C-alpha cells in the first residue's frame, strides 16, 4: 500500500497516459463531448489558470447560461438550486440540460453547480464569475463563511414545510443522476470532478456546521455514485477480457486480429478510466470521510457510516475488507444512538448475503461482544437492530455466538418494549425452533402428539420454566407470535400432550411442565382472540386490516370447535389442581358461542357446565371461584341461544348455595351454643362462593343483605366472629348495595326502592364505622376500604350527569366519622415498617411481606385521598396528611445528616425530576433569564442556610441540593453563570474551595457546571488540532485572520481556562458509552485507560492524521476540555473538530494506535477477473505489527465510576 499524498485545495490526478476513453459508442447512447485540448501537456490539472478559463464559452456569458434547460422549461435565468428546489422537472431532464450547458460553456455551468452547493448550505452569498476565475477555493470558502447568516436558521436540507420536505432526496438524486449521465466522458475531462471534489473537500473542513453537513452529504453521495461507475467498469472489463480470450483461442484462420487489437485498446481505456475513478474515490475518502466520520455532529457521522455501508454492499470486492470495516466497528461505540443505528443497519446489509460471510470473520470475532452488548442499548431502536443483526449472524453460522451470547438475547423476550421483544423472539425462534423433523412426501400429516410441533412445544415449555419468569407467559407468547404463530396456534397438539398417554419411549410431562403448558396455551388463545399485545406492551389500539380480521375470526372458530370438545376432559383431569383449573376456566371467555349451536355441540356444553359446578363444590380458593363466576358470565349472553340452558344451570347452583348458606347461618348463630370450627368453615366456604358469584352476577332476588347484616351485627355484639367470615360478609354486603344501586340508576324505579336502598346504605356505613375499632387489623382495613368506596359513590357527585332523581341517596359523613377516618389513616398508614405487625401476618423478616404491607398502606391512603379530592370530607384534613410527610422528611434528613448517599435511587429520582423540570424552560434563555437566575439564588441560599452540627470543617446539612441545582445550570446565559458563581463564592470559605472529600462533591460539580462556557457539549470531542490531515489550505488561507465569531469564542475560552486554572475544580465526569451494560464501563476521562478487546489489531482507533495544531487554536493544556455544543447545523464551531467522538483525551488515542499507520491505505480496486473468480479474492490489508497488547484491564476506579453514574 502506498501512502496517498496530501491533497491541496487545487489538486490534480496523476495520469500515466494521455489516452482516454473518449467515445461513448460502446457503452452509452449520448454523444461524445470534446476533451480538454491542453490535457497532458504540462498544464495545471484541476481548475485551469485564469487565462485558460472559458475557452469557447465566452460568447455565452453569464446572463445567458443554462439557457438550454431553463428556457425549455419556461424558467429563464433560474439557478440550478431553484430548479432542484421546485422539483417540477424530472431529475433526468435537469441533469441533461445542465450537461448541455456544460458542453456549451463549462465555466458558467460549473459556477452554477458551485453556487448550488453553497445555496444548499443555507448561505445567501453567491460565488461570482470573477471570484471563480481569480480566487482559490480556500479564499472563496472564507468569503462565503463571512457572508453566512447564522441567525437566519434557514438550512434547506433540514427545513420544514412541503417545499423543503423532499429537497434532501432531490439533492441526493441530482448528484447520483449527474454522475450516472457523465460516467462515459465528462467525469474524465480532469476539470469537472477535480473542481467539485476540491470544493466539497474544502467545505467539509469549514467551521460552519451547515457547510460541513452539506458538503459531507454531497461528497458521500458522489462517492457512492463513483462506486457504481467503478463497478460497471469492472463488469465491462470482465466482459472485454472474456471476449478477448474467446477470440484469441480461435484458430488462426478464423481469428480476427483487428478485433483483438480493438479489444486490447478497449481494455486499456477501461483500465485507465478505472485508475482515474480510483483516484477520485481516494480523494473523497481521504479528504472527507476519514475526518467527517468522527465529526462533532451526529448526523454527519451517520451520513458517513451509512454510505460506507453502501460501498461495501455494492462493491464488496473492493471495499469489503477490514480496512473499511474498522470504521464501522469503531463507530459502534459512538455516543449518539443515531450513529450506532446506522452502523448496525450497514452491517445488516452485509451479513444478509451469505456469500460475504467469509470476509466478515475477523470483524465478527473483534466486534461480536460489542454487538451483543448493544442489545441492551438505552436507545430501543438500536437494541432492536442489534438483535436483528445477531439473528443474521446466527442464520449464517451457529458457531460464532456462544451460549452466553445467546442467553443475553433470550431474556429480552420478556422486555416491556415490544419491538425489542419481537426481535428477541425471532432470534429465539431461529435458534431453538428452526430445526424440525422433516415429513416424508406423500405420508399423511401427523397430528396431535405425533405432530412435528410436539417437540417444539415441549422446547417452549422448557425454555419458559428455565427462564424463571413464570408470571410472564403472555410476554413470551407475544414475542414469538410474529415468527412462530403457526407453532403457537397448534392447540390440537397441546391438548394431545395434556390428555393422551405418552408414546412408547417418550417421557411424560411433569406436573410443573403441564402447568406451564396450560398457561402458555391460555396466552396463545387470548392473543389469537384479542389480536393485541398484553398489558404493558401495547401502544394503544390500532385498526386491524381486513386480512387480520379474517384471521381473527378463523382462529376463534377453530379454537371454539377444538376446546368445546377438549375442555371438559381437561377440567375433569385437573379438577383438583387449583392453578391449572383457574387457567383452563378462562378459555370459554374467548369462544365464539354461536359454534355451540351451529356445530351441534350442546352435549359438550352440558359437560362443561357439570364440570364447572363440580369445581365450585370442590374449591374454596378465591381465584378459582372468580374464574368460575367469569365463565358463567361469559356463557350467559342473551344474544346466543345457549343462554337459557346456561342460566338454568347457574340459577340451580346459586339456589342451592343460598339455601345452604341460610341453613348453616341459622345453626351458626343459635344463642347459647358455641360455634365449632367445622360450622365456621362451612359458613365461610359457602359465603366465599356466594361472594365470588355476586361480584359478576346480580343475586338481588335472594335477599342476601338481611342474612349478611345479621352476621355482621352478631360479630359486633359478641366480638368472637372469625376474621375471614367478617371480611367476606362485608364484601358481599357491599356487592348487594352496588347491585341495588345499579338497578335504581337504570331509570325505571319506585320510591320504595330508593327508600330501601338509602336505609341499607346508611345501616351498612354505620356497621363499617363500628368495625373500624375492631381488634383485627385485616377486618379494620377491609371496613375502611369499603367505607371509603361507599362514601365516594354516594357523595354529591352521583347526581351529576342528569341523575337528579338519585339525590335522596346522597350521604355526607358527619364530623365523628371524618375524625375516625383520619385517625385510622394516621395510626395505620404513617407508621414505621417494623411496627406494622398486623398487616404482614408475621412476615416482617420477609422482604416480599414488607412490600405487600407497603402496597396495602398505599391503597388505604389513596382511598382516603380520593375523599379529599372529591370534597367528601373537609379539605383541611389534607393538612394533616402533609404534616405527616413533612415529619417523615425532616426525620429522614436528620438521620442522613452529611452522609447523604448521592447514588441512591431516591436521590437519583429527584435529580431526574429536576432534569425534566429544567427542560420545561425551553430554549429561549432570554425569556426565562430572571426565573432561572432566581432559582439558582434561592437554591444556593437553601444549600448553605443550615451549617453542619459537627463543626465548621464539615459541609452544610443541605449541601446535596447543589447537585440537584446543577441540572439547571445549562439554562443560564453565559454572563449569568459568572454572576451566579460570584454569588456562590460569597457563601464559601477558603477551606471549602480546597476540599476534595466525597461529601463536598455536590459543591464541586455545581461549580464546574457554572464554569463551563455556554451549553456543555455532551459529545466527548477535543478540538485542539486541525480536522484535516490529507488536505491543507493555501498559504494565503493560513495567514488570514479568523472571523469575528471565532475570535470572540477563543477569547472566551481563554478566560474560562484561566479561571479554571485559578479555581480548584473537580475533573469532569468521564464520558461513557451510552449502551447500558452490566460489566465494567468505558471511561473516557483518563489519558491511559482500559481497552475493549474489539479495538485490538487492525481495529485500533486511528490517530489524527495531522499532528500539528491549528494556527488559530490555543495550545493544548493537560486539562480535559469541554467544547461548546450548538443547537443546530447552522451554528459555527469555535474550533475545527478533530478527535474521534468516542475519545476525550489525546493520550488515549495514542495509546490505542501504536504501530498503526493510518495514512497507508488506498482505495485499490481489484484486478480484472471473471465474476466466478472474483469471490476468491481475499485481500489482506492489515499489518501484523499493529496487533497490540491486550493485557491492559479496567481499573477499579473505572468500574466504581461506571456503576455510580449508571445507577
UniProtKB/TrEMBL annotation:
<keyword id="KW-0132">Cell division</keyword>
<feature type="region of interest" description="Disordered">
    <location>
        <begin position="1"/>
        <end position="71"/>
    </location>
</feature>
<feature type="domain" description="SCD">
    <location>
        <begin position="289"/>
        <end position="374"/>
    </location>
</feature>
<dbReference type="GO" id="GO:0005634">
    <property type="term" value="C:nucleus"/>
</dbReference>
<dbReference type="InterPro" id="IPR016024">
    <property type="entry name" value="ARM-type_fold"/>
</dbReference>
<dbReference type="InterPro" id="IPR020839">
    <property type="entry name" value="SCD"/>
</dbReference>
<dbReference type="Pfam" id="PF21581">
    <property type="entry name" value="SCD"/>
</dbReference>
<keyword id="KW-0159">Chromosome partition</keyword>
<dbReference type="GO" id="GO:0003682">
    <property type="term" value="F:chromatin binding"/>
</dbReference>
<dbReference type="InterPro" id="IPR013721">
    <property type="entry name" value="STAG"/>
</dbReference>
<keyword id="KW-0175">Coiled coil</keyword>
<feature type="coiled-coil region">
    <location>
        <begin position="230"/>
        <end position="283"/>
    </location>
</feature>
<dbReference type="GO" id="GO:0000775">
    <property type="term" value="C:chromosome, centromeric region"/>
</dbReference>
<keyword id="KW-0539">Nucleus</keyword>
<feature type="region of interest" description="Disordered">
    <location>
        <begin position="1026"/>
        <end position="1055"/>
    </location>
</feature>
<keyword id="KW-0131">Cell cycle</keyword>
<comment type="similarity">
    <text>Belongs to the SCC3 family.</text>
</comment>
<feature type="compositionally biased region" description="Low complexity">
    <location>
        <begin position="1109"/>
        <end position="1121"/>
    </location>
</feature>
<dbReference type="InterPro" id="IPR039662">
    <property type="entry name" value="Cohesin_Scc3/SA"/>
</dbReference>
<dbReference type="GO" id="GO:0007059">
    <property type="term" value="P:chromosome segregation"/>
</dbReference>
<dbReference type="Pfam" id="PF08514">
    <property type="entry name" value="STAG"/>
</dbReference>
<comment type="function">
    <text>Component of cohesin complex, a complex required for the cohesion of sister chromatids after DNA replication. The cohesin complex apparently forms a large proteinaceous ring within which sister chromatids can be trapped. At anaphase, the complex is cleaved and dissociates from chromatin, allowing sister chromatids to segregate.</text>
</comment>
<feature type="region of interest" description="Disordered">
    <location>
        <begin position="1102"/>
        <end position="1128"/>
    </location>
</feature>
<protein>
    <recommendedName>
        <fullName>Cohesin subunit SA</fullName>
    </recommendedName>
</protein>
<feature type="compositionally biased region" description="Polar residues">
    <location>
        <begin position="1042"/>
        <end position="1055"/>
    </location>
</feature>
<dbReference type="GO" id="GO:0051301">
    <property type="term" value="P:cell division"/>
</dbReference>
<comment type="subunit">
    <text>Part of the cohesin complex which is composed of a heterodimer between a SMC1 protein (SMC1A or SMC1B) and SMC3, which are attached via their hinge domain, and RAD21 which link them at their heads, and one STAG protein.</text>
</comment>
<dbReference type="Pfam" id="PF24571">
    <property type="entry name" value="HEAT_SCC3-SA"/>
</dbReference>
<dbReference type="GO" id="GO:0008278">
    <property type="term" value="C:cohesin complex"/>
</dbReference>
<dbReference type="GO" id="GO:0007062">
    <property type="term" value="P:sister chromatid cohesion"/>
</dbReference>
<dbReference type="GO" id="GO:0000785">
    <property type="term" value="C:chromatin"/>
</dbReference>
<keyword id="KW-0158">Chromosome</keyword>
<feature type="compositionally biased region" description="Basic and acidic residues">
    <location>
        <begin position="13"/>
        <end position="23"/>
    </location>
</feature>
<dbReference type="InterPro" id="IPR056396">
    <property type="entry name" value="HEAT_SCC3-SA"/>
</dbReference>
